[in-house]
Each structure stands twice: as C-alpha cells, then as structure tokens.
Amino acid sequence: MKFALKEYEASYSKGDFSGTQVSEARILYLAGEISRRIGNEQAAIKYFSLVFERQKNAREASILRTK
Asked: Which of 4, 20, 25, 50 gives 58 a disulfide partner, CB atoms 3.0 to 4.6 angstroms apart?
C-alpha cells in the first residue's frame, strides 16, 4: 500500500493523469484513503481536504457524497 501511495502522490505532483479517465479528485481521494488505511491520519486529512476544496471541478460527484 505504501508503494501505491507513493505512485499516486507522484502522479498528482507530476500531473501525468491529465488526459486520462482518472480525475484529480480521484487521485487525491485514493491517496487519502490509502493514507488512512496505513495509519497516516495527517496525510489522509490533507488529501481529503484537497478533494473537498476542488469539489466544484470534480467529475466524480459520488466521491464527494457523504453518508
């Protein structure tokens, strides 16, 4: 999971997801969820906060819905 997190972080920072079916919101959400699962709460909060900040531009409204 740590490897996957590093890859998502690298993809986000490089912006290499642009032009693909994966949105910025999804990259941030996945990084946040992996961070949460490995116990890195500070990083999870950071990534989830970025998702909510960008909610106006997000294509995946389902990511932003809360239960």
From this structure: 25
